[in-house]
Amino acid sequence: MINETIERILAHRTVRDFEERPLSPEQIETIVRSAQAASTSSFVQAYSIIGVTDPEKKRELAKIARNQHFVAENGHFFVFCADLHRHDVIGKMEGKDVADSLESTEKFMVSVVDASLAAQNAALAAEAMGLGICYVGGLRNDLEKVSELLKIPDKVIPLFGLAVGYPSSVNDQKPRLPFEHVYHENEYQQNNAVYKEQLKQYNEEIQEYYRDRTEGERCDTWTGQMAEMLSHPQRMYMHDFVEKQGMNKH
Predict the structure, then answer these.
(1) Where are the transmembrane segments (predicted)?
(2) DSSP per residue over 180-245, as a string?
(3) Domain extents for the chain?
């Protein structure tokens, strides 16, 4: 069942080091048009993409993302936004009261899903052109500042960045969770003993990956990483920010 497209998907690696070589306008347009070809709930198309080329703005975004150098140093930096602003404009154009819909949790979820589907199409298109990509969730460290930099209007949420460029180095591929742990058939698997055993086996695979990659300097487990991260809540301002933007109110 393997073909060229599936091989490319399965070969995905995150790239964090890029050549100093900008993407061409044709490459940028192809990536954005590929994003637009993604599925969208009820044809709502509730997202926008902001390309950031201003070096100073990229440096500021890199600072917000805790100084991740690849936010400033890449071929092109895209910011994917959940966007219901145009639908607010549509309501006024058509003389319809759309406020309750636009403020609903449902439409907020639609906008986040639409933007995520578009971004993955963009990533696949970039990789098909021989480029590398890295998603950047660190923009959410300070969405007030991101919104100020990018002049974000109401009913728009910057969700994440996508750094794209010509790879100068490529990491080894990180093993994903076991197929059996992710895929459930007909009903959610309820046996926690099986669940924990699968996680233990995955931990062993992750430890081997880190040992090989760091020549034995690192051997932490995936469950250990996740438990440590989740024990320190992050970005707890998010609910208030989203409401301030006029979304996810009810």
Answers:
(1) none
(2) HHH--SSS----HHHHHHHHHHHHHHHHHHHHHHHTTS----HHHHHHHHHTS---TTHHHHHHHT
(3) 4-172, 179-219
Tokens of 19: 């050549």
> What single-letter DSSP state applies at residue 58?
H
Q: What is the pTM of this model?
A: 0.95
The CATH number of the structural domain formed by 4-172 is 3.40.109.10
Is the CB of residue 163 less than 8 Å from the CB of residue 136?
A: yes
The answer to whether 250 and 105 are in contact (CB under 8 A) is yes
Residue pLDDT, tens place only, 178-231: 999 999 999 998 999 999 999 999 999 999 999 988 888 888 999 999 999 999
> Quick one: which of 169, 167, 161, 157 has its CA closest to 57?
161
SS3 (DSSP) at 63: helix
119 phi, psi to nearest 5 deg: -65, -40
Burial class (CB in 10 A: 0-12, 13-18, 19+), 81: buried
Residues 6+ away with beta carbon under 8 Å from 116: 80, 159
- Name, in order, each residue with C-beta under 8 angstroms of 61's C-beta and a sequence gap of 6 or more: 52, 71, 72, 77, 79, 139, 146, 149, 161
Q: Are 74 and 220 in contact (CB under 8 A)?
A: no
Alpha-carbon dihedral angle through residues 227, 214, 129, 23, given to the nearest 10 degrees: 90
